[in-house]
């Protein structure tokens, strides 16, 4: 069964925002940015810009008819700056012009006067100054304080992980049209159509029913368009509302890099205690999240860091505290894994720290402490249908871990200037929005009188293949072929009050709603067939468009049945609602059952370092992953491959740098490098674990979007192992990304003074 999209993609037929035919009278918008990272906004003077031919309007906060506020969780984010500016690139004004060229030419002519205020870019400095976006959170189980006394080994350290740019191929943008009665219709490149609708209505002082948002597909989102598509949709809508003309706003790449938030950098302290059998007895961790200038999704990301702070391990005594720190950077936001990877990086660093000190393979500690059935997570949900050990053991056997170890050792023995490193990376990721209420979805299914079917849900296609999966669910449930199904655009007037397409839960939530709608339609049609054929309803099925009675073809088929239903005035449409059952979480005690289920897997990573240059290649990532009963192995394999490579990028080469003035230094694709084909592992082997899936996964096909990113952490630890094979006792701070510069510095500590090492680390925001 083919993925629905690739054929259209390779023929250039897929419609993205920029493929929407431009309507007559369209104005082009460009955004004036704050020139400083923090200050009092004294004046905006647009006189010179307005004198430029083609420039129609320059809008500021004063032109907003409703409320100048787009904060998703905390109302701390104005759409256009008012009174103060809090980060470089913060939208200050909106230029509207007859051409894109005129709009951009006008930007430099808008004078923005700002009185500077002190700038903070470091989360620990922010925390010390009391600059927190929300109060700190602590997850606790057992009594770590009391447990240290019983530990044979205790280790402590610091771990730092950097930010990450989403680099969706399609930059942020929206196209807004004025509609009758003062409303707007917005075509938006967003993962959250309802978020764009809600905030736009608020900004314009309209009811949500006056704002329609439509999404065909995104050229990638990766979390960067969960909340951060909203400003561009709302700004385009503001322009359309004020001028009563269509307004198109699309950020160019460098503006997108400057103005939008990214994965949160974290700086963390850990302490880990083991008993004589190397079981982890206690773990204490403090996370300092670099939240940027407004809360955005940071509190939810912070919470998921805590949920995943013990990764795939059972630890009886845990105290984990997290601070969401306000800095003068663009508000950081959702990014594949949603804080989970940052939490897991610290856990893996703690294990590597202990193993290196004890002279053991980290894998020894990892394997011994994997979760088992019934073990409690620090938030008190038990691990159920737990495949952590199965995934590890299968990966170790399937990819010959002992053999790989021997190869690496033999290679390192034989080569002076090349060293290999090996690491295992088990993962465990919880599936559900951690905010319980968000775990709901709806589907609207129409059967047309010719037997073709239109399906609308809240799911946004962003390359992850959710439309194909939803079509598969409809086709399987109705017993008809895939070509009969069309998955419609995601539109707020057809399916309302949607959760964003995020948390890897899109196919589960919207697929389950689709399944419910199709089950209701199938039952309705088969009851009609039972009456017409004078047969028992219980024995009837539809397969390949044929109605079967007790497994044998009956005297009717899909088309006839649909037609009969219409003429008998039986409804051929159904609207279904799905809410994940049995979820609960108490955010005051930080206990409950927040996840429908967990996804497990283990990856084995082999790298080779060129010890003269500090450069390296990822030779192989070989993994066993728990897909359950995969609906579509090609799509799921694609998600693994993309996730692994994106994770490797975060851990190795994506070096996001802001200076102390809050200016993005890695501000183009010349200075910010993401993995290309040459950086991808030469071997990327995916073994589909034999697991039953989970009843709360759509047709038992488990969520796959985010978990594989975390396999990328293995590359960091494999590189550490390779460096240690060259320089056993070199100082090696836990600091990602492990760029070739850092590798080189750690290979030759005698040539690089400690100050320079610090300088390399300090450029990270
Ligand atoms: N895959 C592609 N090709 N493009 C994307 O933008 N986003 C990722 C992941 N895989 C993304 C992707 C993220 S962050 C999430 S949460 C999930 O897909 C969202 O889709 P799902 O819920 O259908 O898995
Ligand atoms: N994951 C991803 N996105 C989210 C979540 C989550 O748990 N909660 C709110 N948005
Ligand atoms: Mo994904 S970070 O939940 O959009």
TrEMBL record:
This is Xanthine dehydrogenase. The keyword Secreted does not apply. Residues 11-118 form the Aldehyde oxidase/xanthine dehydrogenase a/b hammerhead domain. The keyword Iron applies. It holds the Pfam family Ald_Xan_dh_C. InterPro entries: Ald_Oxase/Xan_DH_a/b, Ald_Oxase/Xan_DH_a/b_sf, Ald_Oxase/xanthine_DH-like, AldOxase/xan_DH_MoCoBD1, AldOxase/xan_DH_MoCoBD2, AldOxase/xan_DH_Mopterin-bd_sf. GO terms for molecular function: 2 iron, 2 sulfur cluster binding; iron ion binding; oxidoreductase activity. Belongs to the xanthine dehydrogenase family. Keywords: 2Fe-2S, Iron, Iron-sulfur, Metal-binding, Molybdenum, Oxidoreductase. SUPFAM superfamilies: CO dehydrogenase molybdoprotein N-domain-like, Molybdenum cofactor-binding domain. It comes from Hymenobacter amundsenii. Its cofactor is FAD; [2Fe-2S] cluster; Mo-molybdopterin cytosine dinucleotide; Mo-molybdopterin.
């Amino acid at each position: 069964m083919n993925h629905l999209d690739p054929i259209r993609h390779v023929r250039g037929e897929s419609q993205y925002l920029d493929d929407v035919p431009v309507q007559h009278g369209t104005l082009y918008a460009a955004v004036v940015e704050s020139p400083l990272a923090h200050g009092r906004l004294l004046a905006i003077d647009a006189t010179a810009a307005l004198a430029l031919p083609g420039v129609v309007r320059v809008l500021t906060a004063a032109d907003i008819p409703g409320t100048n506020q787009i904060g998703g969780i905390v109302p701390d984010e104005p759409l256009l700056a008012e009174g103060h500016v809090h980060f470089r690139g913060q939208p200050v004004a909106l230029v509207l012009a007859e051409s894109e060229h005129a709009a951009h030419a006008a930007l430099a002519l808008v004078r923005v006067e700002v009185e500077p205020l002190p700038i903070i870019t470091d989360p620990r400095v922010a925390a010390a100054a009391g600059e927190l976006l929300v109060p700190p959170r602590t997850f606790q189980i057992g009594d770590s304080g009391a447990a240290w006394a019983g530990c044979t080994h205790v280790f402590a350290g610091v771990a730092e992980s950097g930010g990450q740019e989403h680099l969706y191929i399609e930059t942020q943008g929206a196209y807004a049209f004025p509609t009758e009665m003062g409303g707007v219709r917005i075509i938006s490149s967003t993962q959250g159509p309802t978020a764009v609708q809600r905030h736009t209505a608020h900004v314009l002082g309209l009811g949500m029913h006056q704002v329609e948002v439509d999404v065909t597909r995104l050229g990638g989102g990766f979390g960067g368009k969960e909340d951060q598509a909203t400003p561009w949709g709302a700004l385009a809508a503001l322009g359309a509302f004020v001028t009563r003309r269509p307004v198109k706003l699309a950020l160019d790449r460098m503006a997108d890099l400057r103005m939008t938030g990214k994965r949160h950098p974290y700086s963390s302290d850990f302490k880990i205690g083991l008993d004589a059998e190397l079981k982890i007895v206690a773990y204490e961790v403090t996370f300092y999240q670099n939240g940027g200038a407004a809360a955005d999704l940071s509190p939810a990301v912070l919470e998921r860091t805590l949920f995943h702070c013990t990764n795939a391990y059972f630890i009886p005594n845990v105290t984990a505290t997290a601070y969401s720190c306000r800095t003068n950077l663009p508000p950081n936001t959702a990014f594949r894994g949603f804080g989970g990877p940052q939490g897991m990086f610290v856990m893996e660093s703690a294990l590597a720290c202990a193993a290196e000190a004890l002279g053991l393979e980290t894998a020894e500690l990892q394997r011994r402490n994997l979760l088992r059935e019934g073990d409690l997570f620090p938030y008190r949900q038990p691990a159920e249908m737990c495949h952590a050990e199965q995934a590890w053991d299968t990966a170790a056997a399937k990819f010959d871990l002992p053999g790989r170890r021997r190869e690496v050792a033999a290679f390192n023995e034989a080569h002076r200037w090349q060293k290999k490193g090996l690491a295992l990376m088990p993962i465990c990721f919880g599936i559900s929005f951690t905010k319980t209420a968000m775990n709901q979805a709806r589907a609207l299914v129409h059967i047309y009188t010719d037997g073709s079917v239109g399906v609308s849900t809240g799911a946004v296609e962003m390359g992850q293949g959710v439309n194909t999966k939803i079509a598969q669910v409809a086709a399987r449930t109705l017993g008809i072929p895939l070509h009969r199904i069309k998955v419609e655009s995601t539109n707020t007037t057809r399916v309302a009050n949607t959760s964003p397409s995020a948390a890897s839960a899109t196919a589960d939530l919207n697929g389950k709603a689709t399944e419910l709608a199709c089950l209701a339609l199938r039952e309705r049609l088969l009851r009609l067939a039972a009456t017409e054929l004078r047969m028992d309803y219980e024995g009837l099925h539809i397969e390949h468009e044929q109605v079967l009675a007790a497994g044998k073809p009956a005297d009717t088929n899909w088309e006839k049945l649909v037609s009969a239903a219409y003429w008998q005035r039986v409804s051929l449409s159904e609207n279904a609602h799905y809410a994940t059952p049995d979820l609960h979480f108490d955010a005051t005690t930080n206990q409950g059952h927040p996840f429908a289920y967990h996804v497990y897997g283990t990856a084995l990573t082999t790298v080779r370092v060129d010890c003269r240059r500090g450069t390296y290649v990822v030779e192989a990532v070989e993994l066993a992953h728990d897909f359950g009963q995969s609906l579509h192995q090609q799509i799921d394999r694609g998600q693994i491959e993309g996730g692994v490579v994106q994770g490797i990028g975060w851990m190795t080469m994506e070096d996001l740098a802001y200076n102390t003035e809050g200016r993005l230094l890695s501000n183009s694709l010349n200075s910010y490098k993401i993995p290309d084909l040459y950086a991808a592992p030469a071997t990327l082997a995916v073994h589909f674990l034999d697991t039953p899936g989970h009843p709360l996964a759509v047709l038992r096909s488990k969520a796959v979007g985010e978990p594989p990113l975390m396999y990328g952490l293995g590359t960091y630890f494999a590189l550490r192992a390779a460096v240690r094979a060259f320089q056993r006792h070199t100082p090696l701070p836990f600091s990602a990304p492990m760029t070739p510069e850092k590798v080189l510095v750690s290979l030759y500590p005698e040539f690089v003074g400690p100050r320079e090492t610090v300088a390399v680390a300090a450029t990270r925001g």
